[in-house]
Amino acid sequence: MDLQDQLKNLFPDHDPSQEIEETSSEPKELWIQKEPMICQYERRKGKATTIISGYTGEDEDFKILAKEIKSKLAVGGSFKDGEIIIQGDYRDKIMNLLKDKGFKVKRVGG
């Protein structure tokens, strides 16, 4: 008994559709702003953190950018209150990544 037969036994009234769902495999284009984003260094609870703020686009775009930065640098971090918080002092690497994407970045602090 294969999966289709098991599903028919569980849901006899269900009629499966023959439509093929299309998913978009191309990456979403991020909105590039004219004002510079702020990349700053801070110590929180004794640990070094890099904070990126000042993005004026949609939060979803900023979350995608946060995920991309975290995966490229292989570090932990989060997105909270319109800021990307990265564990560790990675200002130079983050600034280079953002400049390569076309963003303007301003370095703040130390």
Entry keywords:
five-stranded mixed sheet, alpha+beta, 110 residues
> What proportion strand?
25-35%
Secondary structure tally, helices: 3
Q: Cα-atom Rg, whole angstroms?
A: 21 Å
Low-pLDDT runs of 5+ residues are: none
Listing every helix as H and every strand as E from the N terminus to the C terminus, the arrangement reads HEEHEEHE
Strand order of the largest sheet: 3-4-2-1-5
Overall mean confidence score, pLDDT: 84
Total beta strand runs? 5
Give the overall shape, derived from the CA principal axes.
elongated
Summarize the structure.
This protein is α+β, with helices and mostly antiparallel strands and 110 residues long. It contains three helices and five strands; from the N terminus they run αββαββαβ.
Your description of this structure?
There is one protein chain. The chain has 110 residues and is an alpha+beta fold. It is 31% helix and 25% strand. It is built from three helices and five strands; from the N terminus they run αββαββαβ. It has helices at residues 3-10, 59-73, 91-101; strands at residues 37-44, 47-53, 77-80, 83-87, 105-108. The model has no long low-confidence stretch (mean pLDDT 84).
